[in-house]
Amino acid sequence: MPENFHELLKQDFSDLEAAVTSWRKLAGELEEAQVRHRQKVTGPLHAGEWRGADSDTAFMKMEASETQLGVAQSDVSSIATVLDTVHVRMKLAQDKLRQGVRDAEADGYAVDDHGTVTDSRTGSTDADDAEAQAARKQRAAVMGVYQGIIQDSIDSATKASWEGMQLLQSIDAFTLDKDYGASKAREGARKVADSLFQIGDEFIPSDKDPKENAKWWAGLTPQERQLYIDAYPEKIGWLDGIPSTDRDEANRKSLDISLSEYDLKKQNGELGIHDERQYGGLRKLQDALDKADGSPDENKRLFVLGIDTKGDGRAVVAQGNPDTARNVAVQVPGTDNDLANVDEHIDRIGRLQQAARSQSSESTAVVSWLGYDAPEADGSMVTSGRAEAGAGDLRSFTHGLRESHTGDRAHMTVLGHSYGSTMVGAGATGGDGLDVDDIVSVGSPGMTVDHAKDLHIDPDHVWAGYAKDDLVSTIASDKTLGENPADKEFGGKVFGVDTSGHGGYWDQKSESLRNQGRIIVGRTPSEGDYRVHPKPVEPKW
What we know:
It is a single chain. The chain is α/β, with parallel strands linked by helices and 541 residues long. Strands 3-4-6-5-7-8-9-10 form an eight-stranded mixed beta sheet. Strands 1-2 form a two-stranded antiparallel ribbon. The chain is 52% helix and 9% strand. The termini are far apart. The radius of gyration is 31 Å and the shape is elongated.
């Protein structure tokens, strides 16, 4: 890097440009290698029949290798960004220097090999010649301006070179220890973001407006978007309105970081009861991702649209890409669901997607949205508090899917089970509603309203299903959470259910599941009977 006037003036930056290209190419190849590793190695093996202690050990080592590829990609991308930024800043300094020298020489000044500016013109030295003295002072002042331009250019180039060197020394792209590599890569990206771009998480939109999120994201350069994903994956992953592929990349990085942190705690014997549950949920999610990544069917691909271990944990996972699918469904789980049973959420959306695909050849993506703190089996499940708290987040999510979707408007359905239907009702009643085409509830205790028209949707597209022996929908409803949506007075429609109990609505080959698939693709389900209120027993006197 040039350290003086002559070096900066004559510097050829082609080698630095080539280095940037090479590092960016390497980052791309590392990302491709990680994807191939998922699809060709861990994915097929997870989907196969290899089980036992040996397989567990092998999978852990393979997942470590996969994580290391992601760590290297993040670090290499940061290195490319540093070099590119240094190149741009130094080239600007060089252009400013060269222009300053040209302007100085055009004005009759001389610039030597050390960057010193002198006046090559001779004027009158008569002390009594006031006009000549004023001209000489003016020339001296202009010469000082040119000298300042030259010095500023050199200082700018020197600063860019020094800051770039310091950042490069803090990024070790080849220290990939699984225990801290993912976190270290994130910290390295944050240093680059802060030092070179003066960008931090305070610039990430926080008002939950999907349109503004999408506009902000689209206004960034590809390098800036990658830097945000690498530096702040836990925030970018939850940003409604941006492409699902970008959210998935960010959330997979967050998952790697969390797993690395829990792995280290486990090695040190520091896992508490809560940690065990969260760690178990994350491992289940990672296993599901590995299996799906190995599937030859692209519709089975999983996209992580949100992951969080705070509290009981939150997880938003899609099967199929909701940005490109013709039909999009969002399934909201209810009471006693959290990160620890994320595998059950994923199994459920898989069944719903298959049911939809059996009804239509059009592409379908189904999302499990546990983006709220679902109630436990206690007093919290008989009030609308948890639902009201998450209502804005659900609206932001569905509107965000509209914003990130490409092509023609998708047919979108939101389905809620148990208290999840209460969550759906709370989300649909506020603001502009959920902007969906159909709303489905199964096993509902109530949707916080007394009539379907209050859900910001045509009541003819509000569907309810209930099993005759589902105590939540037949006995526990109508208490504190609004009119039961399976009642005729609610104003919606009821579809046929042939399953039993509160959790059978997704039984394979059932009419209950087929009907939900029909609604998801915009078809009419078979009709069911409205709920019949039990007659009060008259006392015998």
